Q: What sequence folds into this?
């Protein structure tokens, strides 16, 4: 048998997910010879078990909800029938299409760039593959992503306990579903399943859903999702496998016990760092065993090792992973000439209905707050979805610094607010822009005017159409 040859490169990237793909591309663009190392090259987390399959399930839930809601417009579609097997089949079929698209990016890599296998540290800056080959590289990027976590009460209870790794593989919708965790993923899937006719109960030991920062926004979110599922917040749970399902006991203000056909555990995704032998890397590690790094450079200490994406346990979002990968790849190629990069405005979005979003600074940052109530907003009323609230934050000069919202169109409105914050816009400047009537965008004017009033900034008179119906 021929002896396996050791490998050399300028930048070795461990992990071929969103962050790893971005890092490899950035490093290669900067002139570096790269290696992209992954055990499977199965595509990104987003395409396989994250963003895309979850949104496919949510799209089915929107369709079911629209049918139920149609009579308010005088449209009576008749009885609703949900084919759970067809729902899940379409989720997998379309998911596989998205996965295929991401895999095509690997075909475009220069020959010899993709290395199938697992890499681990043999010493500071030294990598070895599981087949014994060593990799000599000037710099390393860790982009190994994250993995689903099942806490002890639900561990070893069999296939009825699901994570996002297995949820989309079930052949039919569950009969009765318990969701453990009220974060963005748990809440999205709980509401979607509820709208698809599944009896859903969501449990969380916290009393806050989707990490909402604003009390008014949280109240709006809680009221909306409570129509589609049962909430058990501020409680502890225990579980046991029984005939036909999983029995859950819970504490709290209304303690109880129930048997569920399935349990979806959505309690977080810790970094996937097992097997890297980071104890041999020479890197400083935090209390959780994650390398300490600079989020402006993605550099671990002053070493030639960089980290990006979910592996760094910072902001587990696709757009952040892509940004971090690009920063890490550029700096790995340029090492030791590492340059900081300014990060974009923080932006999170949960695809409930209505969506909930947080942008930039929080309300605790000493900022001025303006609020818009969508409970009677004109365009929202025409669509029979008038509910929710938007809170916008600004500094003493009226410059926008952040926002929290749970209202119709929030996934689009939050983008506009993020762009406004990035550009340094003030409330008067935005109010001077054209607002078409009637639109959901008009609803933000009340919050902007309130900011103007609190900062003594004048409201632009020529564009102030606030007295029009539905504005």
A:
């Amino acid at each position: 048998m021929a002896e396996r040859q050791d490998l050399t490169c300028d930048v070795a990237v461990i992990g071929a997910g969103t962050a790893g793909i971005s890092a490899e591309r950035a490093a290669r663009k900067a002139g570096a010879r790269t290696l992209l190392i992954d055990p499977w090259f199965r595509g990104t987390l987003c395409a396989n078990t994250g963003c895309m399959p979850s949104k496919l399930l949510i799209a089915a839930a929107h369709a079911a909800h629209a049918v139920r809601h149609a009579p308010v417009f005088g449209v009576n579609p008749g009885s609703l029938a949900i084919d759970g097997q067809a729902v899940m089949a379409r989720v997998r079929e379309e998911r596989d299409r998205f996965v295929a698209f991401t895999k095509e990016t690997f075909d475009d890599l220069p020959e010899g760039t993709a290395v199938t296998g697992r890499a681990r540290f043999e010493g500071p800056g030294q990598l070895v593959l599981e087949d014994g080959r060593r990799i000599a590289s000037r710099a390393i990027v860790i982009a190994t992503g994250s993995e689903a976590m099942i806490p002890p009460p639900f561990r070893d209870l069999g296939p009825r306990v699901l994570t996002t790794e297995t949820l989309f593989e079930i052949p039919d919708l569950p009969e009765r579903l318990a969701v453990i965790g009220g974060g963005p993923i748990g809440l999205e899937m709980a509401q979607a399943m509820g709208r698809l006719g599944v009896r859903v109960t969501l449990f969380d030991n916290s009393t806050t859903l989707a990490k909402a920062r604003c009390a008014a926004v949280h109240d709006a979110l809680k009221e909306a999702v409570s129509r589609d599922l049962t909430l058990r917040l501020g409680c502890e749970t225990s579980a046991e496998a029984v005939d036909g399902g999983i029995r859950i006991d819970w504490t709290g203000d209304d303690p109880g016990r129930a048997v569920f056909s399935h349990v979806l555990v959505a309690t977080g995704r810790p970094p996937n760092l097992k097997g890297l032998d980071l104890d041999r890397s020479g890197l400083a590690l935090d209390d959780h065993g994650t390398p300490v790094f600079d989020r402006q450079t993605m550099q671990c200490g002053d070493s030639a090792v960089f980290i990006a994406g979910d592996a760094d346990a910072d902001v587990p979002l696709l757009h952040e992973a892509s940004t971090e990968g690009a920063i890490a790849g550029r700096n790995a190629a340029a090492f030791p000439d590492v340059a900081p990069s300014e990060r974009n405005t923080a932006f999170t979005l949960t695809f409930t209905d209505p969506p909930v979003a947080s942008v930039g600074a929080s309300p605790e940052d000493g900022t001025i707050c303006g609020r818009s109530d969508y409970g009677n907003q004109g365009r929202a009323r025409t669509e029979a979805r008038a509910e929710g609230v938007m809170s916008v934050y600004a500094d003493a000069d009226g410059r926008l610094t952040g926002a929290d919202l749970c209202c119709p169109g929030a996934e689009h409105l939050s983008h506009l607010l993020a762009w406004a914050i990035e550009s340094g816009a003030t409330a008067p400047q935005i109010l001077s822009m054209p607002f078409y009537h009637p639109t959901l965008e008009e609803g933000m004017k009340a919050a902007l005017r309130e900011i103007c009033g609190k900062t003594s900034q004048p409201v632009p008179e020529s564009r102030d159409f606030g007295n029009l119906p539905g504005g």
